[in-house]
Amino acid sequence: MSYSVSLSMKLDSSNVLCCKDIINLLSKKGWKIQKNNKITFLPLNDDDMFEWTTSEITLCDFIKLVDEKEHLEEIVGVELYWEDTYIGGHLLMFNNSDFLFDLNINTKYIGEKVKIPDYNWYSERIISSLSQEYPIIEYKFEFTY
């Protein structure tokens, strides 16, 4: 049986943001984009096909790619992991203020048998981190069973 957990967010667009600023902030707060010296991301000219690519790209080159994708108004996507765990997901940034966390990697649940997502765990690590720097206009957790 398939489960899907996601968190969509919208930040106040009056703050001038870049996608790389959000990625850098989350990295400072405990989210890692590198796993085994590799980064999983949406490549340039993906055309919304979501062809995730894993590469030993440097962090500097990845940030340049993020800037280029943002300039071309493409969806920026990167896989994130919490600290040294295997809990994470895909961050999809549609512009500098609207994004979605697809919490699809070893999703944290309160109870495994009934599959209740641990929204508090994610809120403390995502919403709290972002709200310290940027006003959050709205956020919404979604769970599809």
Shape descriptor reads globular
Determine the number of helices (DSSP H or I, runs of at least 4 residues): 3
Low-confidence stretches: none
Strand content: 35-45%
| SSE series | EHEEEEHEEEEEHE
Average of pLDDT:
93
Give me the count of strands: 11
Main sheet: strand order: 2-6-7-8-1-11
Oligomerization category of the chains in this entry: single chain
- The level of helicity is 10-25%
Our measurement of the CA-to-CA distance between the termini, rounded to an integer number of angstroms, reads 8 Å
Derived from helix and strand composition plus strand pairing, the structural class reads: alpha+beta
Radius of gyration: 15 Å
Main β-sheet, in a few words? 6 strands, antiparallel
General description of the model:
The protein has 145 residues and is an alpha+beta fold. It is 25% helix and 37% strand. It has three helices and eleven strands. Strands 2-6-7-8-1-11 form a six-stranded antiparallel β-sheet. A three-stranded antiparallel β-sheet has the order 3-4-5, with no helix packed on it. A hairpin with a 5-residue loop joins β6 and β7. The radius of gyration is 15 Å and the shape is globular. The model has no long low-confidence stretch (mean pLDDT 93).
Attribute tags:
single chain, three-stranded antiparallel β-sheet, about 140 residues, 3 helices, six-stranded antiparallel β-sheet, alpha+beta, about 25% helix
Question: What's the short version?
Answer:
The chain is α+β, with helices and mostly antiparallel strands and 145 residues long. It is 25% helix and 37% strand.
